[in-house]
Amino acid sequence: MAAWQPLLTHVMRERSHLLVAYAGLLTGNSADAEDVVQEALIRTFSKGRRFENAAAAEAYVRRAIPSVFIDRARAKSSTWRALTRSVDPTPHVVDIDAQVDVRRALLTLSPRERSCIVLRFFDDLTVAQIAERLGISEGAVKRYLSDASKRLSAHLSVDADWERAPERSLVVTPKPGSIK
User: In terms of domains, do 16 and 49 share one?
Assistant: First the structure.
């Protein structure tokens, strides 16, 4: 028996109802709360961490619960967006040339600029979320997005508005005289 198993058993037996109640504040229902607690327990105990006592283990699980909840909400949101995008009733013609142009233009950007652009427009993250994900300031994200937008606009002959809300799609308008 691994050294952590008795501690996990104790936390589950004595404190799981408190953890589920805490998670329920985030999820809004007990079924999802139980799932969040289970995943937080797995994340906590699967890494081989050592805890001095059950209270320390519970505190660590309690800290993991919001992260698990956010990760699950993000995944659920991504799945929902993907499903709603795939159920578009209007026929969609893919412009392969435009895709190639965008990919080629992205390759001209620095890794930070490219990361910011992809996170903003393809993952629909806000400036604050990008800053958190990349571990940089919001000001740096704005600078990278601005610089990258200018470079992409030059390569693609379009104007990109990165400041629009992330739930709206990328606004691309042809520059005057760019359409022949």
Answer: yes
91 in a structural domain:
no
Which of 13-22, 109-118, 150-159 has the highest mean predicted lDDT (pLDDT)? 13-22
The count of residues in the chain is 180
Q: What is the residue range of 135's domain?
A: 96-171
> Has residue 82 been placed in a domain?
no
Domain end marker among 41, 75, 109:
75
pLDDT tens profile 26-74 = 888 889 999 999 999 888 888 777 788 888 888 888 888 888 888 888 8
CB contact at 8 A, 106 and 112: no
Is the full-model pTM beyond 0.70? no
- Both tokens of residue 156? 């693609």
Q: What is the 3-state secondary structure (H, E, C) of the chain?
A: CCCCHHHHHHHHHHHHHHHHHHHHHHHCCHHHHHHHHHHHHHHHHCCCCCCCCHHHHHHHHHHHHHHHHHHHHHHHHHHHHHHHHHCCCCCCCCCHHHHHHHHHHHCCCCHHHHHHHHHHHCCCCCHHHHHHHHCCCHHHHHHHHHHHHHHHHHHHCEEECCCCCCCCCCCEEECCCCCC
Q: How many domains would you assign to the chain?
A: 2
